[in-house]
Design brief:
alpha+beta, six-stranded antiparallel β-sheet, 4 helices, 6 strands
Length: 137
């Protein structure tokens, strides 16, 4: 497989300031990758939702961000990781309108729709990792 990526940048998400920093880093990477304004907005929105989930539901964690080149495509990959309670029912959590808190219930399902690749790995009691990739059109 033909694959290359830039040096990954890791950001701690332990406060609202970390969520803001995550959005800023993702915006910088989408500009570097020359995403259209629509592509930028989609990925920044998904990143914001997932960073907030990492903070609120996961008790804080990290975002690892980097540019990737695979099979002639260029994009931005983000990995959100926490060591929170995990997600007991992934199918339910990915249902539009379902929420475990006071939100609108669009965080996971909405983020999934906004990106090209979405992988959710979770173990109840051990945490959650969500990996998303948006490819340049």
């Amino acid at each position: 497989m033909n694959s290359a990526s830039s040096a990954a940048q890791t950001l701690e998400i332990t406060s609202n300031a970390g969520v803001v920093q995550a959005r800023q880093l993702v915006r910088a990477l989408t500009l570097e990758c020359r995403f259209s304004l629509v592509e930028q907005t989609k990925l920044i929105t998904a990143a914001s939702e997932l960073a907030r989930n990492t903070l609120i539901h996961g008790g804080g964690g990290t975002m690892i961000a980097n540019l990737v080149d695979e099979r002639g495509r260029r994009g931005v990959r983000l990995v959100f990781h926490d060591r929170g309670p995990g997600i007991p029912d992934v199918d339910l959590a990915l249902t539009d309108g379902w929420t475990s808190g006071a939100g609108m219930g669009l965080g996971l399902s909405g983020s999934k729709r906004l990106v090209d690749d979405f992988v959710l790995e979770t173990v109840p009691g051990q945490g959650t990792t969500v990996t998303i990739t948006k490819w340049k059109r």
